[in-house]
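Methods — Computational structure assignment.
A single polypeptide chain was analysed. Its primary sequence is given first, followed by the predicted tertiary structure written as structure tokens.
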Amino acid sequence: MVQEACCTCAKLISNILPQYDEKTEKRVAQDHHLECCGRMICGNCIAINSRFATYCPFCQISSDTSPLPQGLREPPAYSPSSLPHESFAPSFDAEQPPAYSSSDDQQRILGKSGQSGADVAEDVLHFLDPACDTISSLALRYAVPPNALRIKNNVYADHLLAARKTILIPGEFYKGGVSLSPQPIDGEEEEIRKSKIRRWMVTCKVSDYDVALLYLNQAKYNVDAAVEAYLADEQWERDHPIQTTSKRKPILDRPRRTFGL
């Protein structure tokens, strides 16, 4: 004997546990046998969607009065002749697209070679805010392609932006000439001075901040001259080591003192 199944949830009618009302202890909805196609809809599906009690989802026929059209309708016959020929006819007069070249994208980013220098604005210095500034956000604020920002600042990965304090906005794309970032608290000159101090300390591998200030002040914050002066002093100390003249015996050669009990 073939067992009937619900045509909506695809479960066997015999395996479906009916739902009962807590107050009346009666079934919430009875199983419904569709007269149009002979299919069955379980009471649980009718309880979820009461429309299934009077509507067949397969035949699209409602047993109650409905303003919607009853029954399925055949789709319109497909015939290529009914469609306009212009939509299928290829246009041979249209211009062919230009050949793809990898250098085209680079030229669009860096600007055309024939562009005059008067039309190109100067680059704008943007002070980064690590909390909200990213390559994508800067590209939206300044209307600059993201690849142009990466190429201009030699940033090959977006996460490398977190190690920077400033970034250059290329003037080929941004014509405003005004930075949209707030100025640093110490001012632009102070930021340049601190960057020179960090550069000298990294180049000379010196962690003493006072030593860095001493050499840079003597060189009037010329980083190259300060580095040369430091290297010259290091070479002089290697050529003239300190010679000790003390004749004192080492501590290990002294006799140990013994104390009696």
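Note: The longest helix spans residues 188-204.
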